[in-house]
Amino acid sequence: MPGSRTAVYDEHADWYNDHMSADGVGHYVQRVHETLGDLLGHGSGTCLDVCCGTGAHASRLGELGWTPLGVDLSRGQLRHAVRRLPVAVADATALPLADGSVPAAVCVLASTDVPDYAAVLREIARVLAPGGRFVHLGVHPCFVGAFADRSDPPRVVVDPGYTDRSRRFDGGNPAGVRVRVGAWHLPMADLLNAATTTGLRLTRTAENGPDGIPELFGFLTVKEEADDTSPHRSLQLGPSGV
User: Fold this and answer.
1) Which pTM value belongs to this model?
2) pLDDT in tens, 11-50
3) Chain Cα centroid distance, residue 144
4) For the chain, how far is it from start to end, CA to CA, in angstroms?
5) Which residues are CB-neighbours of 176 under 8 A, at least 6 positions away?
6) What's the CA gap between 205 and 38, in Å, rounded?
7) How far apart, in whole angstroms, are the C-alpha atoms of residue 129 and residue 106?
8) How many CB atoms lie within 10 A of CB 26?
């Protein structure tokens, strides 16, 4: 699993690579990339793709002028990602980068794949340079999850399970990602608080989805001050980065 110490995505890596490239999710990926571009904007230098998976979003980062660098714990996923961007095997809660070393970072469609997303955000804040940008983009915490009944589109009916922060395998597409690897739910307030308590300044939010019902939620944050309290780490890549 990206960003977790147990890479459960390994056994699903080939399926996921095909799934994200399939015609059936093409419009979804297009919305993801549109929203990512809207939040991150154009720039130059390294953009760290945290929990990069198969590298499905590297092309969009390149179109925006950034040089993507991916990190993920799943070697199975990185077998596909290495064809799309330089990569390193790493846990997202212990990134192998020095403090304040990258001008930009993103985490796309991965927040539900980690049990402690707040710890991931703290690590991202540590490695961001002062003035650096970080974009979170994921499933909408209010309308997508095991607590959300989407069987009668475009209606979404939310039940009290919205407050359940545990990992669940039910709900959603019966042939999709969640039934294979599960998902940790993070309510909207928890998600925003996790970001702002790292010292990152929230500057913009975005929602996107069909029929006026948001299925994606993202935000842009900016690091205002360097954080010198953590031990320095240096990124080390093998011949192929994996």
Assistant:
1) 0.88
2) 888 888 888 876 557 789 999 999 999 999 999 999 999 9
3) 15
4) 16
5) 19
6) 10
7) 14
8) 11
- Whole-angstrom distance, CA of residue 197 vs CA of residue 79: 35
Token output for 158: 């939310």
Q: Which DSSP string do the residues of the chain spell out, in sequence order?
A: -TTSSS-GGGGGHHHHHHHHHSGGGHHHHHHHHHHHHHHH-S--SEEEEET-TTTTTHHHHHHTT-EEEEEES-HHHHHHHTTTS-EEE--TTS-SS-TT-EEEEEEES-GGG-S-HHHHHHHHHHHEEEEEEEEEEEE-TTTSSTTEE-SSTT--EE-GGGG--SEE--SS-TTSSHHHH-EE---HHHHHHHHHTTTEEEEEEEEE-GGG---EEEEEEEE-S----SPP------TT--
**Domains present along the chain, CATH in parentheses:** 8-141+191-223 (3.40.50.150)
Q: Which of 115, 123, 100, 134 is nearest to 190 (CA)?
A: 115
Residue pair 171/143 in contact by the 8 Å Cβ criterion: no
- The rounded mean pLDDT for the chain is 89
Q: 10 Å Cβ neighbour count for 217?
A: 24
- Give residue for tokens 């909207």: 188
Answer yes or no: is pLDDT of 238 > 50.
no
